[in-house]
Amino acid sequence: MTELAYQSLAALRQGLCQRTFSAREIMQAFQTRHITHHSLNAFITACPDAALQVAADDADARLAKGHARTLEGIPLAIKDVFCTRNIRTTAGSNMLKTFVPPYESTITQKLRDSGAIFLGKTNMDEFAMGSSNTTSAFGRVVNPWKRANDDKPLTPGGSSGGSAAAVAAHLCAGALGTDTGGSIRQPAAFCGITGIKPTYGRCSRFGVIALASSLDQAGPMTKTVRDAAILLEIISGNDPQDSTSANIEVPHFEAEIGASIKGLRIGIPQEYQIDGMATELRELWHTGTQWLQDAGAEIVPVSLPSTSYALPAYYIINPAEASSNLSRYDGVRFAHRVTTNDLWELYEKSRAEGFGPEVKRRILIGTYVLSAGYFEAYYVKARKVQELIRQEFLDAFKSVDVLLTPTAPTGAFALDEEPKDPITMYLNDVLTVTVNLAGLPAISVPAGLTKEQTPLGLQLIAPHFREDLLFRTATVIESCACFPYWKEG
Length: 489
Hints:
The protein has helices spanning about 10-15, 25-35, 50-65, 105-115, 160-170, 185-190, 225-235, 280-295, 310-325, 345-355, 355-370, 375-395, 420-425, 435-440, 465-480; strands at about 45, 75-80, 115-120, 175-180, 195, 215-220, 265-270, 300, 400-405, 440-450, 455-460. By secondary structure, it is α/β, with parallel strands linked by helices. β10 (about 440-450) and β11 form a beta hairpin. α9 crosses α11. The protein starts with 8 loop residues before the first helix and ends in an 8-residue tail after the last helix.
């Protein structure tokens, strides 16, 4: 029954409804794979086996009575940035290594209410700061893919690398991630899975540990585009507990799978042809364009002139908001605390021991750009650039329906080849941060392989709250690519 772990979420849902197999059998298949793939370090906290078996038996009982909910008995993994009641939530940091939330995030509660079973909390870059999943206090995550010419462990991308690796290695039927500058889409591309960053406000942020509040957005990471549509429909919707949550109707996203794209106008932004982009990625981009044209879409060149300023603006806004959000971790109210009788020493040592190097770096940068004398010079200018980028996208969408770009400038690199210079590492986000700055929805779809046989992804970007267009268009790329999903042997 271990082959059940290789099936898509949609296939598992159908099989459960038809009673072809049981929720307990599915759970046992994934538990077996957790044991054999422990070395990937995809999970920080696994839910107890006994509790999972009870949950699976409860699901089977509901299925037998005809009371099944949308995701009844489907095992999911949750990025360790979502607060889950009575399950440890660390955000990949020593600062929260013993934190057990007394409440549930809105999104995870929606999944629970739909019948999903949580296998555990996935590893991530500390407080979602990183592009390689190497900044976690709980060790690095390893991509299940290997290069054809060597056996070096590869990065799964970040910060949602644990979720991406778990889906790619068939350790769960689907997973939740968060995306602040590409942290769903880039690891999805590196691990050969589908990842969607919804429109800002489409999904509630209540109970999600914040990095940059104006940029963060949760989304699904799955094996297929259909699976992503199923999960996004469940986790979307207005939440009175989140003031940034949009009060807008949630479409039936799964209905868009397989719908025609004839007549859609696909924009190709010239500014995304950046220096250093892998040759095979440029060729894949051209191939993807041809796939969409063959399916009846019209290809339209577009220009987004401020794209080159996106990364500098992002790495001012992101640290500024992070320094503010992380000020709550002071060793007094909760989180890691150093025992001392001196208040200032308590603040200093608690934060020094609790935070890792990348978190400290961004707090320092963020505090600097928000300080007197520099606020206007840096932060205010970055916000002006952000508005320019947003307006350029709005202008582009007057002439096109969807934009097509690569997701990341390269395929997954080896962990021992990780750039030591943080600025070089930040360049991993160069093709994704614009979407977050503009608050737009975007999806990464596995579409091809590098010459070393590792995954490459193509990114689709749509206007605000038009995820339906993403699913419709992504299905075409998925069907044309016939992507070889990772499997042993």
